[in-house]
Structure formats: C-alpha cells, structure tokens
Specification:
alpha/beta; three-stranded antiparallel sheet; CoA-Trfase_fam_III; 2 domains; Rossmann fold; EC 2.8.3.22
Length: 401
C-alpha cells in the first residue's frame, strides 16, 4: 500500500463535482484518487441519488455510494437559490475544474453555465456530461447508460442471434466509459491551460462514448453496407472464439483469432485432423458450426479447471468466465490487490475495486470511502471562502446549505 503522505500527480488541484449519479462523479473520483481535492456539491437534505442506488447499509448510504464517492468532500449547497449559486461561483473562481451532468441548459438557468463561470475564472476547465451532448436535436432529451447503449449501437449487438437485444453485462458501462473520456478531456484541457492560461469546456455525450467503442462498425457499413447483428457468445470474425461449457457445468472463454492459435488448440485437443481440415481462418468461418461443435464437445469432456490447464499449457488464449464469487477467490486478483478493503466507521470495512491505472512512481490511493452528506460543508466554506460561523449558521437556517 502507498503511504498516506506520498505525493500524487494531481496534488494541489481543486475540483468541484456538481454532477450526480455515475459518469461525472466517476471522473471526479478518479481525479481524487490521484490527489485532487474534490468537493462534492450536493442538494441539502437529499444529496446525490447515488446514495440511495444499490445495496443499502447500516451507515445510511449504499455500497455504490461508498465505493464511487471515495476520497471526496461533501458540501451541501442549493444551486437553485441565488445565494447558493453565488457561493458556487465563488468556489469556481478558486477552483481548477468543475464537473456537471445536468441536462443542457440547466446550469445556464441558474447563472452557472460555461460563460458565467469562465467570466469569474478564465483558467477554469469544465466537464459537461449529458446523454446526447450540448448540441444537436436530441440535446434536451434525458439520457442514462441504458439509453446510451441503445442509441450508440451497442445493445443492438448484444444478445443471441435473432433474440432480444440485451444490456451488456447489466452494468452502467456507458457511464463509466464516459467518465474515462471525461478524465482524458480534463487532463488534456489542463495541459493546454498550463501552456496558455486559457480554460475550456469538454462536451461528453454518453451515446458517443459508447459509439466510439464499436471497432470497425462505422467504416464497414460505409464501405460495404455491412450491418453486424447479434452474434451471441461468438463472433463472425474468428472461430473458435466464444464461450464453452465444461464437464462440471462451469464456463470458459476461448479466443483463437488466427491460424497459429487454432493449431495450438488442436494440439491441446489431440485432434490433428481438425488442424488439417480447418487450418485456415476462411475454412473455419465457413464451417463455424462444425468447429465450435467439436470444441464444445471437448470442453464438456472434463471439468473446467482441467480444460483450462491443458489450454494454458499449449498457450491457447483462454480463461474462466468468473462470477464475482470466483473473482474473490482468484489468486491473480489477490496478488495484484485488485480488490482492496477500506475501513468504514459503521461497517468495519468495505471491499472495493483498487485504484487504476497503476503508476510506478506516483500511484493513486483510496484515503476514505464516500462521505456522509454535508460532512465537509463548514470546513470547506470556512477555509476556501472564509465564511464565518455566523454566516454559515444563517445560510443553514435558510436552507441554502
């Protein structure tokens, strides 16, 4: 584990996280893990809806909140009230980054849009995350990851051939992808700011983040009119390349993307006849049902661990299809500390994914899990904006904090 006093790459950076739910807050969380001071702005009395999303706990917040709001400070502030908006502008004037994911135009109604914040801090970088982006005919539509998967083209590809399109993995993948693009945009904008003194805003649309991950779909359609459909657990571009059940009812993945890999698989299966008959990718793709059937018959002949051992001995790309229970007992996850336990006052400790990416000299770290609502309001407003106890009490009495 990294020392709690070790310097991190983003030490000294101040970020206002005014976003809700996943994409924008995920960007802010990544910055916090690498040293940024992230001030989470939440609605008084309510907080981020993420506090109520997922598995509830005895501390009052969900496990999703505890994991995704790590390292942040919680400040309650009603942005819809003129006094709250004024305080937010004051905070933005002394911050480096603002992150928001309201529907386009919402912050402008409160006097907190890009033009207003840029005016008080020309060096400010602003990340704006929305379902469809800040421009275009769909800009005012609400958007969530599931909608982005659909509109961006990913859900159309997910599912069994001829079956119902499904959400890949039933996760908020589009939110997390957008959060990563948000961090990339912030770091690029900060580099430009440091060189020129000028801030800028970043426009991240959930559907575009999903669309960018679809490998050759766009050029293939434009070039040849190809419309890729649902391919189930395999792919039409390689064979065998999919998921196979083993003799104990457990599943594994095998990926033979070229002829050499298939030759190694044939050696593992002790089937030189298959190597002779289907040695070229074109032959395998033409008779993919036969090839996949032969591989499936072989994997069902023994328990998964035995099949995996044979595949790995022959350097066949393969791996178990892990449930989360499998992951918690996997020695590789343990060796790399991919799951870490972080203390929590009420719960004892909570297991969460480790900080990524892994830097050799200045790694990130998790200092604490998601904070209680408003836990840092007084401290932040006293130290950053020099508000007095009398001012804080007045603002709290009027529901601004």
């Amino acid at each position: 584990m990294t020392s709690s006093s070790a310097r991190r790459p983003l030490d000294g950076l101040r970020v206002l996280d005014a976003a809700t739910f996943i994409a924008g807050p995920y960007s802010a969380g990544l910055l916090a893990e690498f040293g940024a001071e992230v001030i989470k702005i939440e609605q008084p009395g309510e907080g981020d809806p993420m506090r109520r999303f997922g598995t509830p706990t005895a501390c009052g917040d969900t496990l999703a909140w505890l994991s995704e709001a790590r390292n942040k400070k919680s400040v309650t502030l009603d942005l819809r009230a003129p006094e709250g908006a004024a305080l937010f502008r004051d905070l933005a004037a002394v911050s480096d980054v603002v992150i928001e994911n309201f529907r386009p135009g919402t912050l402008e109604k409160w006097g907190l849009g890009w033009q207003a914040l840029h005016a008080v801090n020309p060096r400010l970088v602003m990340l704006r995350v929305s379902g469809y982006g800040q421009t275009g005919p769909y800009r005012d539509r609400p958007g969530f990851a599931r909608i982005a998967h659909a509109v961006g083209g990913l859900s159309y590809l997910a599912g069994m051939p001829g079956g119902v399109p499904v959400t890949p993995g039933s996760t908020s993948l589009g939110d997390y992808i957008s959060g990563l693009y948000g961090v990339v945009g912030i770091l690029l904008a900060l580099r430009h700011r440091d060189a020129t003194g000028e801030g800028q805003y970043i426009d991240v649309a959930l559907f575009e983040s999903v669309f960018r991950m679809l490998d050759e779909l766009a050029p293939a359609y434009d070039h040849a009119g190809t419309v890729r459909d649902r391919e189930g657990s395999g792919t039409l571009n390689a064979c065998p390349h999919g998921h196979f059940e083993c003799g104990d009812g457990r599943w594994m993945a095998i990926a033979c993307t070229n002829d050499k890999m298939f030759a190694r698989l044939c050696q593992a299966m002790q089937r030189p006849d298959l190597a002779s008959r289907f040695g070229r990718v074109a032959d395998r793709l033409r008779d993919r049902m036969i090839v996949d059937g032969e591989v499936a018959a072989w994997t069902r002949s023994a328990p998964r661990d035995a099949i995996l051992e044979i595949c790995l001995r022959h350097e066949v790309p393969s791996g178990p299809i892990n449930s989360i229970a499998d992951i918690f007992t996997d020695p590789h996850f343990a060796a790399r500390e991919t799951i870490v336990r972080i203390p929590q006052e009420t719960l004892g400790s909570v297991a969460v994914p480790a900080t990524l990416p892994r830097l050799s000299a200045t790694p990130g770290r998790i200092d604490h899990l998601g904070p209680a609502l408003g836990a840092d309001t007084d401290a932040v407003l006293r130290t950053v904006l020099n508000l007095s106890e009398t001012q804080l009490a007045d603002l709290r009495q009027r529901g601004i904090l």
